[in-house]
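User: Reviewer 2 asked us to show a designed sequence for the structure in our supplementary figure. I'm pasting the structure tokens here. Could you produce the per-position amino acids so we can include them in the response letter?
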């Protein structure tokens, strides 16, 4: 049986842990060769000849450019760019955030995907094909779900995804994003349980909060979404932000929808029934 990414080459930022590590594993299992970028060193030995590491600080354009160039020089091409590196960034009321922290947050969360899109497009245009994916967030779709700088950056990723999709579609390049809710990763475990290694505790807390029959979101859920967007199965999809959020952004709650109990039809004020 043909693997879903057989013969393809991907570059993944933020590949050391969380969504990036889960996606790397999923991609390689589906026949993809990968360039793994991160500010932390990654041991690629478990992937054999299918992976190579590149130091990549996504706030630095040269690092992202070099990551893309390594994919081409080492594997011969670039089919998939996954702009995934992220942080929580500046936290606090808007009148307390230092400008330096605001800028540093956007440098990673918004400039990083911009650099990834820019340099992936540089090598994908001559190929006439490619899939660019960025990690957005449910905080990029509404207010009140994340810190101010994080929310602004993720809204930017969603908007940039839509616009660049219109820019690159004529070259056969698809551009999409994934908007996860809080998922059981080291970053979320650190926020929820005070320990980046407390993944199981994060799963327990997230399961209690999830409208989807108590199921927590995991890094593998995002990896599966990335796999679909990277594969030819999503070949007619571009400019889309795919949520992995148990329905939170459509209004799903633990309590269920409003008006969820049967009662006579409500008509004009004070009247019921047909």
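Assistant: Here is a per-position design you can include in the supplement:
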């Amino acid at each position: 049986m043909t693997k879903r990414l057989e013969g393809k080459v991907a570059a993944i930022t933020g590949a050391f842990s969380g969504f990036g590590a889960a996606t790397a594993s999923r991609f390689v299992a589906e026949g993809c060769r990968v360039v793994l970028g991160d500010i932390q060193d990654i041991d690629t030995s478990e992937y054999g000849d299918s992976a190579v590491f590149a130091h990549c600080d996504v706030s630095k354009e040269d690092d992202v450019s070099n990551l893309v160039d390594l994919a081409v020089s080492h594997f011969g091409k670039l089919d998939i760019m996954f702009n995934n590196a992220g942080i929580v960034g500046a936290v606090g009321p808007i009148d307390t955030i230092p400008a330096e922290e605001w800028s540093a947050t956007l440098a990673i969360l918004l400039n990083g995907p911009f650099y990834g899109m820019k340099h992936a497009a540089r090598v994908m245009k001559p190929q006439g094909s490619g899939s660019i994916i960025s990690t957005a967030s449910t905080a990029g779709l509404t207010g009140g779900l994340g810190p101010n700088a994080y929310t602004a950056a993720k809204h930017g990723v969603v908007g940039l995804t839509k616009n660049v999709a219109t820019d690159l579609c004529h070259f056969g390049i698809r551009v999409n994003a994934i908007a996860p809710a809080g998922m059981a990763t080291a970053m979320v475990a650190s926020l929820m349980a005070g320990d980046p290694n407390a993944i199981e505790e994060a799963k327990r807390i997230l399961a209690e909060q999830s409208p989807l029959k108590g199921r927590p979101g995991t890094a593998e859920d995002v990896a599966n979404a990335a796999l679909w967007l990277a594969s030819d199965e999503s070949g007619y999809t571009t400019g889309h932000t795919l949520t992995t959020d148990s329905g939170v952004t459509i209004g799903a709650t633990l309590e269920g929808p409003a008006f969820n109990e049967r009662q006579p039809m409500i008509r004009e004020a004070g009247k019921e029934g047909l």
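For the response letter, you might also mention the following. The helical segments are 18-29, 61-75, 99-127, 148-168, 186-193, 199-209, 219-230. The radius of gyration is 20 Å.
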